[in-house]
Amino acid sequence: MRRSLADVLNAATGAVPSFTCYTLEQASGVITAAERLGAPSCLLLAPSAFNGPGGALLASCLVAAADSSPLPIAVQLDHTTDLDLMRAALDLGVTAVMADGSKLPFADNVELVCAASELAARYDASVEAELGHVPGSEDRAIGAKVGAFTDPDLAARFVELCQPDLMAVAVGNVHGTYPSEPRLDFTTLTRIAERADLALSLHGTSGIPDTQVRQAIRLGVKKFNVNTELRRVYLESAQHLFNVENKGFELLGPLRQLIQRTDEAAASFIELAAASPLPAAPLET
Ligand SMILES: [Zn+2]
Hints:
eight-stranded parallel β-barrel; binds zinc ion
């Protein structure tokens, strides 16, 4: 059942794993894993994919996947400042948007999130904002360097002013691959969680060691985004599958393999969320 991101966050007992899906096989693999493991989840629609050829079809495919699932599933248009793009996605049935004004001056970021919230409210949809900036490309792994962290005091003021449903934080995480092992700043994360009274999200989870993801969840991260790892698994499998001799030009077999590989990769993150203690619970070592 398709639900707003806020409803999915409420329905989940732990953090909500969220996966960028560029293809039908990825959507199918993620949904299969989520249903097998009983995990309310979020399907992420990349704005670059939505804006490109077949983008509306992809959005409708993700919406249909959520509709047909017995689990609460959200569909979110990811990072954008474009209110028209948000409206187009909401018209097609997405249940959340990420109004990402993290590269804008503070006041403009607030203004963007307020406008997005007003728009999303008409559709009963949720809004995720970002303060501080998570560097790197969402679509390509480029080994981005860590940028400026989210300021906890500014975060409190930001939330007061525009009240998003969820806020993405920059605490040592980047989009894409990490040039060296990431070290999340848990002191900053704790201070943000203390000062800003809302659910937090972690972007760039691919490549962060499990122990650090678990600690982030314990400290207040209620949603985490996975993209690079699903792309890596998909492309490495595709390179192998489509290079093997296939005299009958059979397509279904390789596509099923891609669904299976995506299912396995998504399942590992869903299991990580399920094994993570809730906020304030003691962390097992
Ligand atoms: Zn992101």
